[in-house]
């Protein structure tokens, strides 16, 4: 579609050009500009690496690597030519390569990127702020990898491949950037051509269903709390506290003295291991499965330093507590988070009523699982549709696309609360 300049009640066509003709280079110019304004092609994402290539036996490089608000990785590939030649295949390879990245690894990658750009910010703090997390959540990180292809145009073969991938729920987009020459100024028309914006609602609903399934899995977790020596702990902190309390009382010289008291559970694989082994595992995998702070390590004068596992199920904690109670420790189970699995995931912690311009009234609910629900005349309706209507009518500065229902709902409720 052509672009026209309007002046004096007249339309004059602006001629398209090419990046090559305008001497606009792929990496030095386009990539440099887009990484500073990534929302132009990928709203609600944060660039964490440029020319990324941190895998062995490969010289391939990702133009831009980013993270979206759902904590998913996003591979962004740029081409300044007219076909986007083979960039779909390249991006798929890259997506597979980064799919196993952990939050810890992503933090290290982002820190290098910040340092290379003369930024002294702490990478982990910036990531947590962007994701709206209080602490790292490895199990919720990089559950998917999105792909954004950016080119002056795309061949029929490439668009056919992308449409096929979309039908199989691969998160992939094609962004077309066409340059125009207007009186010695370069104007760039940026359009998302696949999937068409009109089809985004359907894809968002599919993603919402996946999100609800993840939330349902979270809701089935055990949130029992325990009281020991006047303080309340979750499962893993309870074990650590009991062991340190026993350690302080008994001053054991060898680990075998501890095994005499907690014979079954503490001998299970990796429940109590050498601190050096636990630290090495964390450095290699980026996932901390043991308590590794200096004040959390158990130091035996004869056998050395040992780290306690932070992976405890309800079944394993019950077995451990049997031995703790045998030596006279009193542990009280004080609370269990009440969560219903199904349509309602969690207890209501916030709700508000909103009336739209058409006089329709909606009740918006947020639950302690962060689930967002909307009701009209007592009947549950699609939450995101309602959220978008309210945001549009009120003129709030909240993106209508690219956010999960959970994030969009939280931002909207914050706005409504401030009114």
When the domains are counted, the total is 3
The average pLDDT is: 84
DSSP strand (E) fraction? 25-35%
- The secondary-structure element order is EEHEEEHHHEHEEHEEHHEHEEHEEEEEHH
Largest beta-sheet details:
8 strands, mixed
Q: Count every helix, treating DSSP H or I runs of 4 or more residues as helices.
A: 12
Spell out the key features of this protein.
eight-stranded mixed beta sheet; 3 domains; 12 helices; Trna Endonuclease, Chain: A, domain 1; four-stranded antiparallel beta sheet; alpha+beta; 419 residues
Write the layout of secondary structure elements.
Elements: E1 3-7, E2 10-16, H1 26-36, E3 45-52, E4 62-68, E5 73-78, H2 87-98, H3 103-116, H4 123-131, E6 145-151, H5 156-167, E7 172-182, E8 185-194, H6 200-219, E9 225-228, E10 231-233, H7 235-250, H8 255-261, E11 272-274, H9 275-285, E12 298-300, E13 304-308, H10 314-326, E14 331-335, E15 348-355, E16 361-367, E17 372-376, E18 379-381, H11 383-394, H12 405-418
Parallel strand pairs: 5-6, 6-7
Antiparallel strand pairs: 1-2, 2-7, 3-4, 4-5, 7-8, 9-10, 9-14, 11-13, 12-13, 15-16, 16-17, 17-18
Helix pairs in contact: 7-10, 11-12
Structure overview:
This protein is an alpha+beta fold. It contains 12 helices and 18 strands. The chain folds into 3 domains: 3-195, Trna Endonuclease, Chain: A, domain 1, CATH 3.40.1350.10; 225-335, no CATH class; 348-418, no CATH class. The chain has helices spanning 26-36, 87-98, 103-116, 123-131, 156-167, 200-219, 235-250, 255-261, 275-285, 314-326, 383-394, 405-418; strands at residues 3-7, 10-16, 45-52, 62-68, 73-78, 145-151, 172-182, 185-194, 225-228, 231-233, 272-274, 298-300, 304-308, 331-335, 348-355, 361-367, 372-376, 379-381. Strands 1, 2, 3, 4, 5, 6, 7 and 8 form an 8-stranded mixed beta sheet that branches. A 4-stranded antiparallel beta sheet has the order 15-16-17-18. It has a 3-stranded antiparallel beta sheet with strand order 10-9-14, with helices on one face. Helix 7 runs parallel beside helix 10 and helix 11 packs across helix 12 (405-418).
């Amino acid at each position: 579609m052509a672009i026209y300049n309007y002046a004096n009640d007249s339309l004059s066509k602006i001629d398209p050009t090419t990046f090559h003709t305008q001497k606009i280079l792929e990496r030095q110019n386009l990539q440099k500009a887009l990484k500073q304004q990534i929302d132009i092609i990928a709203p609600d994402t944060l660039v964490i690496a440029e020319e990324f290539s941190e895998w062995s036996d490969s010289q391939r490089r990702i133009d831009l690597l980013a993270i979206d608000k759902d904590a998913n990785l996003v591979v962004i590939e740029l081409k300044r030519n007219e076909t986007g030649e083979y960039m779909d295949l390249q991006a798929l390879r890259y997506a597979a390569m980064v799919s196993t990245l952990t939050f810890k690894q992503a933090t290290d990658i982002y820190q290098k990127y910040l340092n290379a750009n003369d930024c002294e910010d702490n990478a982990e703090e910036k990531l947590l702020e962007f994701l709206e997390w209080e602490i790292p959540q490895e199990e919720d990180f990089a559950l998917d990898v999105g792909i954004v292809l950016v080119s002056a145009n795309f061949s029929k073969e490439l668009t056919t491949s992308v449409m096929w991938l979309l039908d199989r729920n691969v998160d992939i987009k094609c962004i077309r950037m066409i340059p125009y020459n207007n009186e010695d100024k370069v104007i760039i028309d940026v359009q998302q051509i696949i999937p068409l914006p009109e089809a985004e609602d359907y894809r968002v609903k599919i993603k919402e269903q996946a999100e609800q399934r993840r939330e349902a899995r979270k809701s089935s977790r055990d949130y029992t709390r325990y009281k020991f020596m006047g303080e309340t702990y979750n499962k893993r902190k309870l074990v650590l506290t009991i062991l340190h309390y026993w350690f302080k009382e008994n001053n054991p010289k060898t680990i075998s003295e501890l095994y005499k008291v907690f014979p079954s559970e503490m001998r299970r694989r990796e429940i109590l291991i050498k601190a050096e082994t636990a630290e090495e595992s964390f450095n290699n995998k980026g996932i901390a499965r043991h308590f590794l702070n200096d004040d959390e390590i158990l130091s035996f004068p004869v056998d050395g330093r040992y780290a306690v596992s932070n992976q405890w199920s309800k079944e394993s904690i019950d077995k451990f507590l049997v031995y703790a109670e045998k030596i006279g420790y009193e542990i009280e189970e004080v609370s269990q988070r009440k969560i219903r699995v199904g349509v309602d995931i969690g207890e209501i912690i916030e709700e508000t009523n909103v009336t739209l311009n058409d006089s329709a009234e909606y009740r918006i609910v947020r639950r302690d699982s962060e689930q967002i629900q909307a009701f009209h005349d007592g009947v549950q309706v699609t939450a995101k549709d309602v959220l978008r209507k309210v945001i549009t009518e009120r003129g709030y500065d909240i993106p209508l696309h690219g956010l999960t229902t959970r994030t969009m709902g939280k931002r909207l409720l914050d706005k409504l609360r401030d009114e």
